[in-house]
Amino acid sequence: MSEVVVTASTQDVLGKAATASEGVITKQELELRPVYRVGQLLETVPGLVVTVHSGEGKANQYLLRGFNLDHGTDLATFVGGMPVNARTHAHGQGYTDLNFLIPEAAAGVRFTKGPYYATEGDFSSVGANHLGLVAELPGQVSASAGTVGDQRLFAGTTLELRGGDRLILAGEAVHLDGPWDHPDNLRKTNLMLRYVGEAGLSLTALYYRGLWNATTDQPERAMRQGLISRFGTLDPSDGGGSERFSLSAEYARDLGLAFGGGRIEANAYAIRSQLTLFNDFTHFLDDSANGDQHGQNDRRTTAGGALSYAVRTTLLGLPTDAIVGLQGRYDRLYVDARHTRARASLTTLLADRVAEWNLSAYGEATVHFGHHARAVGGLRADHFAASDTNLVGGISGDQQAGLLQPKGSLILGPWMRTELYLSAGRGFHSNDVRAGTLSDVGVVARPPFLVKSKGYEVGLRTSAVPHLQAAVTLFQAEFASELTYNADVGQTEAGRPGRRRGVEITAQYRPRPWIELSANLAFSRARYTDPDPAGDHIEDAPAFVGSAGVLVDNLGPWFGAVELRDLGAHALSSDDLHRSDGYREVNLDLGYKLTPTLRVQLDVFNLFDSRQNAADYVYVDRLPGEPAQGVEDRHIHPLEPRSARLAVTARF
């Protein structure tokens, strides 16, 4: 019999999903997408945009459903069961750096949106992404080089052990300058050692180290005055370094009838990481002699795990899928902020030792009412505690908080391969535990440790048209406090309450086994909900996010993809007097299989050489000779100009 290979970017979850906006991305799409940086693997999630406003070694910027999620707040991300979001981070709450992930090691993405899932906790109110790690990696060596000073070497293989067990080894070395006048000179090393057992146990060790320079967002007036070019920087000493080492274990097993049936899953992890960043956003606003560069240090150990038990049972005589679970995490960290000049420390501004932990329990049941209706009900309980020791004479103390979060969905269908979903739920994100200040009466005033959120959705998913999967979702999300970016300290901070309302439309069409066409559109309206004369527009919240693309695989020896990304116009200030035009970018991936074991691949990024901005903000900074109070200006980080990358991969 001849082999037929079918291109598919997503799994069909009709009859299984709890909402219209969840899904599973296959490894095949991850491999076909043109990806400039590893974080853009997450752009396979419909409506999610991944961009940057600084050096490539930092965590990316994430935007979804009208939210500018900064470096990861409210977008929970996991790799191989390990949480990536960092709590009480030196640079931003929920900091999500994926530079430690080797792209070839990613097995796919399971994603959810909204606070409707009892299994999802901190940072998941807008969305959650679970990247799996491969169970097998074909032996291969790959080398690539590009037009913006980028080179990469990758090697990986799978060793077969006794009894069907496998040992996966992989490593990559990356260098990237980018188009910047002061090159990023990113030097990145990743190593992976992974054991996958036939009995359901996997063990993974990951190591990452990166060093880089950074061109942050720069004031437009500096470009108009000729002080710097569009790709220049006022402080070429900005940059950073990061290192991460992790050990993790995952276990999954279907239990026999003697143990009550069902399935048990467990994971455990230990992570040691450190990060140093140097960023100068306001230039000479605070210190006219030495400049305003901040050095931020974050050193932490994170340990935790999860245990769940899922079983098919009956409730009041109705077939029911039930799951209960426990999750726990402990972070012990040192964070500081220093006033620096050319990376040399001048003054320690903040320094804290923090211990933070949480214990969470959840239960969820899906009750099936015949073949055309089911209901999902869940309850999640989270308890958080933290101890903060301030080392520079500020506030020290302990905090505790807990939340109960009910969640539920009603699914009607399928009829004619179409389902209707109604969902509601409550969620939260944790705040930086250092965010305490003294009030006028000497009482410690803090923003809430846990910030409540709630969401509602109505959605429709259909596969009624042959070869087409489509979904439409109406959503509303509310937060008791928005996290907003503060350029003065280069950090996110708790802000005003806000609400988003919008609609998402996604579709994938496969007219032939070797081709898929896809489109994802998200429209939203983001507003603060408290009265304030400053205005009600939420800054940096895009009203439109869109993407469209074509994936081709096994068209004879040809494979590839072309993708359009569109980030719509949005307010840069709460009074809407300053606005961004957003950006549009087309990326291309074209590959050819020279032999069954040898292929070449050409990636072209920003194919039409768009001169728009990847990120822009409005805030006050000061250049030499300007008034002491500084000047409010737009600060931009341009899209990289058109560039190309050629890769050669040999399998063995």
From TrEMBL:
Subcellular localization, as worded in the UniProt entry: Cell outer membrane
Start and end residues of each TonB-dependent receptor-like beta-barrel domain: 213-607
Keyword line: Cell outer membrane, Membrane, Receptor, TonB box, Transmembrane, Transmembrane beta strand, Transport
The protein's name: TonB-dependent receptor
InterPro entries, A to Z: Beta-barrel_TonB (IPR000531), Beta-barrel_TonB_sf (IPR036942), Plug_dom (IPR012910), Plug_dom_sf (IPR037066), TonB-dep_rcpt-like (IPR039426)
A GO MF label: siderophore uptake transmembrane transporter activity
UniProt keyword annotation of Membrane present: yes
Topology within the bilayer: Multi-pass membrane protein
SUPFAM superfamilies per record: Porins
Family indicated by similarity: Belongs to the TonB-dependent receptor family.
Pfam family, one: TonB_dep_Rec_b-barrel
Domain TonB-dependent receptor plug: 18-127
Record-level GO BP terms: siderophore transmembrane transport
One GO CC term on file: cell outer membrane
